[in-house]
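sanity check this record:
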Amino acid sequence: MNKIILVIEDQPEIRKLICMTMDYDGFEVHESDNGDSGLKMIKALRPGVVLLDVMMPGSIDGFQVCERVRADPEIAHTPIVMLTARGQQSDILTGRRVGCDEYLTKPFSPLQLIEIVERLLEKGR
């Protein structure tokens, strides 16, 4: 099982909370604070799961990161969890359209996040 988790989140305090939540059971947690570097890290690290914010600084947002991952055959299979404050039905539909596996709105339950990540990692064995 690939226990590499990549957190792409621009807010340091939220990134820290997510990293602390996922820092157990041998997970290797990596961080990025924007979509551009996050996309490069997905290609370099080949994470088991990506936890991806939608609204970020830089030239691409989370939806665009997800679209680009799904369009790249080498990394298209990477499970992506959108983790965002944008909880409108239209945002959730956009997340599904661009290919995210799960869509969690902030504030999120750390236990729910762990359950989702573990389920996605089990599927990807």
Summary: The domain at 4-123 is CATH 3.40.50.2300 (Rossmann fold).
